[in-house]
Amino acid sequence: MNKTLLLNRNFINFGIPAVLMGILILLMNSPFYNGNDTLSLAISADLLITIPLVYFLLIRKSQIPKTTVVPMMVIGLLIGTYFLPKENQLYLTLFKNWVLPLIELSIITIVIIKVRKATKTYQKLKNISPDFYDTLKNVCAEILPQKLVLPFATEVAVLYYGFIHWKKRELGPNEFTYHKKSGTPALLGALILIIAIETIAFHFLLAQWNTTVAWVLTLLSLYTGFQFMGFAKALSQRPISIEDQTLTLRYSIMNETQLPFSTIKSITLSKKGLPKNKLNRSLSPLGDLESHNVIIHLKEENTLTGLYGIKKKFKTISFHIDNADEFVKKTESNLP
Fold first, then answer.
1. CB burial class (10 A; 0-12, 13-18, 19+) of residue 45?
2. How far is CA 5 from CA 1, 12, 18, 240, 315, in A?
3. Full residue range of the structural domain in which residue 54 is found
4. CB-based contact 55:69 (threshold 8 Å)
5. Distances (CA, A) of 41 to 54, 75, 185, 231
6. Do 312 and 330 have their domain in common?
7. How big is the CA angle at 206 (ends 201 and 207), to the nearest 5 degrees?
8. What are the pLDDT digits (tens) for 180-223?
9. Mean of the pLDDT values across residues 61-71?
10. What is the pTM of this model?
11. Do residues 300 and 316 share a domain?
12. Of 43, 93, 203, 303, which has the highest C-beta tally within 10 A?
């Protein structure tokens, strides 16, 4: 019954704006539209303001995030750009160049403020430093559509770890590093260096053919390099931790999972390679390029969450940890 009501409510929430947009599309394609500037202004205002406002009023008391009004504006902008004649898109252009960037900046500002507030609250309650990425995901879940939470949080985290947060993280008594004795930082550093060299070489090569393409690919390559820098910095900021009832495995912001102690069948010190099996996973996304020294076997399947929310099932997981002996001893002491 509740599911049916929810479906009906969502049909109304999204159906009414869709019908209004459909009416405007018919109007723009009808003989009644003659390119009049006043009528173009009215249509632009309906697409960018009226329909998003109607949508907001429909969802204001629902669980749908209020920030979904922004995608509704973007849809209106795309419809206007496609159906309005170019000479009548003045107001759409003004909105795209001035208003939309301000809205995007406002959303990012709100996220940052909420993350800072949540972090301070958590720190007061627990008297420990919370994980920024976990806090960021929780905050984003409150204000963004579910499918956008992990992609948005990942991009913000890359910038945060790569360029903002450089302070050394003090480890708690039940936290363990995994990057100091592994070759991952050196490997990521080498990848960043290769990207930098290749970007310069390809830029000059492509510029002889097409300058625009050369700059687009150069910017994409630079952004990829910035991402690897964020991944590398996050290695030291997101340790593996033993908590009350759970073992939390992290690998930068690239992979993570939570293992309730009740689901752990065994934990062993081993560098032996795992058989090729879809339920055998490495915590490191680098796979065989990085060695491991700990293997955990589970009683049941669990989920490894990777970049942008990509999920993989596993029942056995291998990973490297710097102080492996102490880690295994503490983990075993928590097993039922």
1. middle
2. 6, 11, 20, 43, 38
3. 2-88
4. yes
5. 18, 17, 55, 46
6. yes
7. 100
8. 888 788 778 888 888 888 888 877 887 788 788 788 888 888 88
9. 80
10. 0.70
11. yes
12. 43
